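Re: the request from the purification team.
They wanted to know what the chain is likely to look like in 3D before they choose a buffer screen. I agreed to run a prediction and write the result into the notebook, where they can find it.
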Amino acid sequence: MTGKEKSSNRTKAHGYGYVGADGRKLPGVTTIAGSHYPGGIGWLGKWANKLGLDGLDYEAVLNEKGNIGTCAHYLNECFIKRETPNLTEFPPDVVEHASNSHRKFVDWHNKQTIGESVGVELEVVDADLGVGGTMDWVVLLNGKMTIIDFKTGASIGVKEYRQMAAYQKMLQRQHGVVAEDVLLLKINYKPTGRANEKFVEDLELHWADFKSLLDIYNRGRK
């Protein structure tokens, strides 16, 4: 990879730390999209209990998975921008897992027709809605303007659909860019396998759900 070295210092995780023009702190899209998730948090307790029975600390596991995701996103960002990554702050095992995910992205990328890139790690703050978000990549993909979100986790569901529907609306509202497609690109960090595409459908339905959850969130803050 050529180009200048890119630091991996990411001061804000997805979904947190957004500030409006008036200085007001705003929730992130992922925070709103994941609220009132079907089934509540019961699944988390079961998962944490299983890890405990296996002799693992669930907080340590969560942190490791988060670091892998951050590192994989960073590698993808550097690849798109043709910058050299600086991986010194990541532990070797995290880099190894993240590199598995990144290789799947590169393999997928090389099979696509890539056009104009609107932005990588594109932050959008919508003061009227009262929410902020960061899109992994907005690009002309195979002839269609597309919002792409990299997913290194195990599952994709309604939370992610709401997230992508919100991104589509916010991109148009704030940048005047109409995304024809929104794509969840699943690139897990297992050493085998390939990238899997999930184009989100029923975006208007998921957008309506997102707005309802945002209204509930805002009423709770008053």
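For the purification team: The first helix runs from residue 29 to 33.
Please add any questions underneath this entry.
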